[in-house]
Amino acid sequence: MVEERMGDCWSYTKDQFDNLEKHTQWGIEFVEKYTKFVKERSEIETNYAKQIRNLSKKYQPKKNSREEEESKYTFCRAFLMTLNELNDYAGQHEVIAENLTSQIIADLTRYLGELKSERKSHFHDGRKAQQHIESSWKQLESCKRRFERDCKEADRAQQYFEKMDADINVTKADVEKARQQAQMRHQMATDSKGDYSSYLQKFNQEQNEHYYTVIPNIFQKLQDMEERRIERIGVCMKTFADVDRQVLPIVGKCLDGMTKAAESIEPKTDSKQVVESYKSGFEPPGDVEFEDYGQAMKRTASDTSLSNSRDGKEKPAGKTKGKLWPFIKNKNKGSGPEDFSHLPPEQRRKKLQGKLDELNKDIQKETDQRDALTKMKDVYVKNPQMGDPASVDPRLSEIGQNIEKLQFEVQKFEGWLAEVEERMPSKSDSHRRSGLYETQNNTTVSNNCAQDRESPDGSYTEEQNSETQVKANPAPAPGPAPNPTSSTPEFDDEFDDEETLPTIGTCKALYPFEGHNEGTISVAEGELLYVIEEDKGDGWTRVRRNEDEEGYVPTSYVEVFLETNAKGAMTYI
């Protein structure tokens, strides 16, 4: 019975170890599966970020004139801002992939190695303890069988002695021999009994320690190991969510940037930019005169009508197919002639001015190189050991030739620009007619309320309703100021014996003006002054610095802001 009970216990313990071994192995496989899951998620984030970056890069503006032309529109700039924000957005997904790799994948990979090693150690200790108790049981059984055998042998020896002692035919020597044999067997049985008793006590202690200390400790270690594994999985799952949460503020800023870019689009500004880009500068044609066929006279066409034939030949009536200038198609494709003569006046002026700016930049660049080489040559002259001064001369000569060529080009384009500006309509021309105009006070505006003003680039000046604002849009460099002695009366006479005029607005100097002529006042670039009399069509605006200093400045040199109640304003469309 004892043997059966011990066998059942050992079998039960072995089964428990087998169950725990299967469960812990399944736990390790689960950690490996979760690690693979996070790794695949990291790869998805990396690929997604790569695709987003490629998309942003694909639609980035190319380095060509067409893209540079588009960059002046607000919706194009907004799209560029969106692409940049999208690129930053892709960077946050890269951060997610990096954090998943460093905070979860690497940690779980290292932990898996530790977990496998710890599990192996615990089961090794369990198997060792189980083998030890089984070995002790076998030794106990061996002692028990030996004690049993010795007892039987002692009984047989005693019975033989008693038989020999009762037999009268046996000699005394044989009886003594049987008695000694019985005593020896009895002593062996006594020794076996002591060994069996001692080993039994030892086994019971080891068995008690095995089932109440060793095995429970091993099971507890396995339980602790399993709990740490489950806890580590929970921490990794929390980190999995935190990695996404950490980038949400920056992702939100990227989305806010996209929203801000969309809100920065200004349709009116873009439409005005289109008008400014394609403004021709043509003067509208004059009225078509009445042709009286009742008199024997030739038809006299309007001098400013563009429907006239260029060669001056009269065309038959009813077959004239002239078109007004806004609807004439430009048949000159490609780059066109060097002087841009194929373009309308205003567009030609802008192209020529842009070409002049490029040439001036090139001249400045060549001049800087020449100055640097000149300094180098001076150093070589003073310190011959540093280099040969003559080695710089070929390059200086080449730069000098380049500067001469560029200066010749500048003169050529300046001549064309002057020719265009002379042909463009000026303030002395007839007043432009418009079918639509706005008045600030909703009343008839007098002639001196809104002069036919043009900024130096030939565009009309707009005056807003809420705050009457007159902006002179000067060319990149202002031309000479009007001669005050010829275009205005004597300024000194206007200042004599008159009351102090009230201010009607303010102005900001766009360029410095020295004011050498009598009646003018010198101003510095960026200086703020009070306007006391607006331009009456002569190109001069009267301003005041303080109570004692006032005078005239060129209207094209200042940016004027008239007060709302100063005057009515007329806007030409």
TrEMBL record:
What is one cellular component GO term in this UniProt entry? cytoskeleton
- Residue ranges of the region described as Disordered: 299-345, 423-498
Which Gene3D superfamilies does the UniProt record give? 6.10.140.470, Arfaptin homology (AH) domain/BAR domain (1.20.1270.60), SH3 Domains (2.30.30.40)
Q: Where is the composition biased (Polar residues)?
A: 437-450, 461-471
Report keywords, A-Z. Answer: Cell membrane, Coiled coil, Cytoplasm, Cytoskeleton, Endocytosis, Lipid-binding, Membrane, SH3 domain
**Coiled-coil portions:** 349-376
Pfam families, A to Z:
FCH (PF00611), HR1_TOCA (PF25610), SH3_1 (PF00018)
Classify the source by domain of life.
Answer: Eukaryota
Domain called REM-1: residue spans = 342-419
Domain spans labelled F-BAR: 3-270
- Domain SH3 as annotated: residue spans: 502-563
PANTHER family in the cross-refs: FCH AND DOUBLE SH3 DOMAINS PROTEIN, FORMIN-BINDING PROTEIN 1
Q: What protein name applies here? A: Formin-binding protein 1 isoform X12
Designated gene of the protein: fnbp1b
